[in-house]
Amino acid sequence: MASFLVDHVLGIEVVYTLIVVVSALIIHGRTRRLYALTGHAGIGAFRSAFLYFALGFFVRFCLVLLDQGVLTFEAVGTVLTVLFGVLTYYFLCVGAFSLVYSMTWKQFSERHRILLLHAASLVIALGTVFYMRYLMYVAVLGGLLYAITIAYGNYLQAEHKNSRPSVRHYLQAYFIGLILVWLGFAVNFLGELVLPSYPLFLYVIYSVTTLTMLLMLYGVLRVVQWPRNVNV
């Protein structure tokens, strides 16, 4: 089994990236109508998050192709490796922070949101590549944990007020979704720590990340079937 995984690493990367990117793009597309009907800034940020995740995993795949020697640019290979590394962390970071913003959007204006999300994500991406290897994971896990606490509070508040079932279902699904994303990043962070000693842990990361994205896709497909007049 181990030899099969090693011998087919590029093929596994293709399947893994394809599943994650396509799932993220479907989530982005299928929530378009819900956002158009409600105009809810949080839903808009949620949609954007998965577009950024799709871009992040696509650029990551380009980085893998460079590492595997499939893409070769002798003159600028090192520059491209650094650039793709920064872009990967940037897109993943801004995607995660967009999820955080989806729970805190009332505290920021649209202009401030754009500046804050992208500036912070770029600084963190550069810091991760050049200074602190785990900076992106620490920042993202902390931000998502904050968003999870807000989501849980919103769900409890809806339960206490005996809100409509559609509202409670929506808030419950959002809360669970944020936990799934947090777990996905947490496993990737754990992988960064143990991969040098246990290289095959990479496939645990792939499995958990793929399952997380498919569960998110399933949840979104369920939610968009619920009544459209959900006020959140």
Number of strands: 0
Give the end-to-end Cα distance, rounded to a whole number of Å. Answer: 48 Å
Q: What's the average pLDDT?
A: 83
Task: Name the overall outline.
Answer: globular
| Beta-strand content estimate | under 5%
Q: What are the secondary-structure elements, in order, as H or E?
A: HHHHHHHHH
What does this 3D model show about the protein?
The chain is mainly alpha-helical and 232 residues long. The protein has one domain: Rhopdopsin 7-helix transmembrane proteins, CATH 1.20.1070. It has 9 helices and no strands. α3 (32-38) runs antiparallel to α4 and α4 (41-68) runs antiparallel to α5 (77-104). The longest helix has 30 residues, at 165-194. The N and C termini lie far apart (48 Å). Residues 227-232 have low confidence and may be disordered.
